[in-house]
Write a structure and sequence with these properties.
The protein is α/β, with parallel strands linked by helices. The chain is built from eleven helices and ten strands. A hairpin with a 2-residue loop joins strand 4 and strand 5. The longest helix is centred in the last third of the chain and has 18 residues.
């Protein structure tokens, strides 16, 4: 990713506090157009909280969050509405509505943000399901009839409903078996290239980090401990960074990545 690529998301000196609990203490980062930026860290490090601030679901206590050139911490809900249409979000558990079919779930953003007819919304929703590798028949099913991998793909289809410029993924591979997780990684890479997406993902999956991420930001101690490519971070001698990327799971993922690169 070119260093001079357009900055599409920027956080400056973000502080996040819930009552007496300090979660972030001066977080600053940039997301460049066309890249996959992964946010990682230990449990409780504030990864998902940071993502929620980027997608305008949570206001930081202090600092600024700029998305597609707009400071979202200084804008009203009405002013943010056009911006929200340019984002797609896939939540960790999929967040599919149990009382709606998969097709109806996929069309939710279109019903909320457009005045398209119901038939056209269903047609677009079906195309999005196909784009994520789901058969047409899946649209008639209920969320509880889907496997974990299918629920993730359905949630991804819904995130793509409005043709977003930015896609945010919260733990996309959590709860999936290795084959399903690999398939989702492949899909994310394909969609990035096909649709020209910029992607921010929160994940703990080392395999996904090696396969999908262009850059990685490591959170810890309420701040950013390190940022760079997986190769750079895995070779870091900084104690906090080295410990995170040197565990057994990390070593296996790195070894498999390096073996694949040498073939």
């Amino acid at each position: 990713m070119a260093e001079n690529a357009e900055i599409v998301v920027e956080l400056r000196d973000v502080v996040t506090r819930f009552d007496e609990k300090l979660v972030h203490d001066g977080i600053s980062l940039q997301v460049r157009r066309g890249e996959v930026l992964a946010v990682v860290g230990g449990s409780g490090s504030g990864k998902s909280t940071l993502l929620r601030e980027m997608v305008m679901l949570l206001q930081p206590t202090a600092g600024s969050v700029t998305v597609l050139g707009r400071d979202v911490t200084a804008a009203s809900e009405i002013e943010l509405l056009p911006l929200r249409r340019r984002l797609g979000v896939m939540f960790q558990d999929g967040a599919l509505f149990g009382g709606q079919t998969v097709l109806e779930n996929t069309g939710v953003p279109l019903r909320e943000h457009t005045e398209l007819s119901g038939d056209l919304i269903d047609e677009i929703a079906q195309l999005k399901l196909l784009l994520t590798g789901l058969e047409p028949s899946v649209g008639a099913l209920w969320p509880n009839q889907l496997s974990g991998g299918m629920r993730k793909r359905a949630a991804l289809a819904r995130a793509l409903a409005l043709d977003p410029e930015l896609l945010f993924l919260d733990e996309p591979s959590s709860g999936l078996d290795p084959i399903s997780a690999d398939g989702l990684d492949d899909l994310i890479l394909q969609l990035k290239e096909l649709l020209g997406l910029t992607i921010v993902m929160v994940t703990h999956d080392m395999d996904s980090l090696w396969r999908v991420a262009d850059r990685v930001v490591l959170l810890g101690d309420k701040r950013i401990l390190g940022a760079g490519t997986m190769t750079e971070l895995s070779r870091s001698v900084t104690p906090g960074i080295g410990k995170f990327f040197s565990g057994p799971r990390a070593r296996v993922a790195a070894r498999e990545h390096n073996q694949g690169a040498s073939l």
